[in-house]
Amino acid sequence: MNVVTAATPPLFKNGFVVSCEHTAEAVLIDPGDEVDELIAVARVQALAVRAILLTHAHFDHVTGVERAKRAFGVDIWLHPADRPLYDAAPAQAELFGFRIDPPPPVDVFYQPDTRFRFGRLIADVLATPGHSPGGVCLAIGPSDSDARELFVGDTLFAGSIGRTDLPGGNLDVLLRSIREVLFAFPDETPIHPGHGPSTTIGAERRSNPFLVQ
């Protein structure tokens, strides 16, 4: 599995290209302002992009969806509980002093136990509400192995957690999502957050000040 991360100012939101090294099939995760870099990576590496997978629908995670959709013609996936946020993305942006165009319609809504296959990889969609009502984390790894890497959106960061003061946020729900869903993975499991550097489950279990008991 190959992972390429890109982030651009002013919000430095991480977007990802995740690809199967055997088949060159790939997915884009949370294409935002860095979408041109993600598209360039896919084209330079001659990847066959199969889907746009969204962890949640806050505006900074969807600003590049339209360009990605136009570039690759693939389905946009989102949890149905975040559809109101997705539809209100321009209004969200205005609250923070930005102007964005409405994103294109969602093509497919995640269902319980959704698994998306691309190449020899599987993306398990894990419901992790709290930062937003329909927040999900994507556990991606080989179809013949239990090893996974976690793409967690704004659920969990290196040394921090997602904010819960935005509409639909809930601190108790977020902490439960982290402890019951994410902390079920082994300590060595890599975590790729929506902002900031990557980390591991073990590092956050041991030292994250919001989670250490």
Give a verbal description of the structure:
By secondary structure, the protein is an alpha/beta fold. The protein is built from 6 helices and 14 strands. It has a single domain (2-207), classed as 4-Layer Sandwich (Metallo-beta-lactamase, Chain A). The chain has a 6-stranded mixed beta sheet, covered by helices on one side. A hairpin with a 6-residue loop joins strand 9 (136-142) and strand 10 (149-153). The mean pLDDT is 97.
Give a quick precis of the structure.
Helix content is 22%, strand content 28%. It has 213 residues and is an alpha/beta fold. α1 links the parallel β3 (25-29) and β4 (48-53).
**Rg on CA atoms, Å:** 16 Å
Shape: globular
Number of domains: 1
What name does the CATH topology carry? Metallo-beta-lactamase, Chain A
Report low-confidence residues grouped into runs of 5 or more: none
Give the DSSP E fraction (strand runs of 2 or more residues).
25-35%
In the CATH hierarchy, the architecture is 4-Layer Sandwich
CATH hierarchy class name: Alpha Beta
How are the secondary structure elements laid out?
Layout: E1 2-6, E2 15-19, E3 25-29, H1 35-44, E4 48-53, H2 65-72, E5 75-78, H3 83-87, H4 89-95, E6 108-109, E7 115-118, E8 121-127, E9 136-142, E10 149-153, E11 156-157, E12 160-161, H5 171-180, E13 190-193, E14 199-200, H6 201-207
Parallel strand pairs: 3-4, 4-5, 5-6, 10-13
Antiparallel strand pairs: 1-2, 2-3, 7-8, 8-9, 9-10, 11-12, 13-14
